[in-house]
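Hi Y.,

Following your request, here is the sequence exactly as I used it, all 106 residues.
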Amino acid sequence: MSTENDPLAIAEAWRLEGREVALATVVETWGSAPRPVGSHLVIDGDGNFEGSVSGGCVEGAVISEAIDVIGDGRPRTLEFGVADETAWRVGLSCGGRIKIFVEKIQ
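Below is the corresponding structure, written out as C-alpha cells. Let me know if you'd prefer a different format.
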C-alpha cells in the first residue's frame, strides 16, 4: 500500500511538519454505513483533511468536531444515524448508524 494516500502516514507527516492533527476512526457501524470499522480521516487545525469515515455523509461534522478536539485536547466519540436528529442535517440518509472516535495526535 502506498503511504501517499494512507491517512495514518499523512497524519505522521503533518505532525512532523509541526501541524496540530486529529485522527477520526470508525469504531462501530450498523446497517448500511458506507465505510468499515477501522476507516480513518486525518484533520489538521486548519481543516485540511485526508481519508474518509463515511464516504462524504458526515465528514463536515467530523472535521468540525476534530478542530474542537485539537483545540481542547479532549477526545470524543461521535454517533450518527437515521434515528438521530442530526442524520438528516449531515446527510447520513443512506441508513444505518456509525460511531467515530476522534482524538488529537501528539
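Residues 57 and 92 are 5 Å apart (CA to CA).

Thanks again,
Q.
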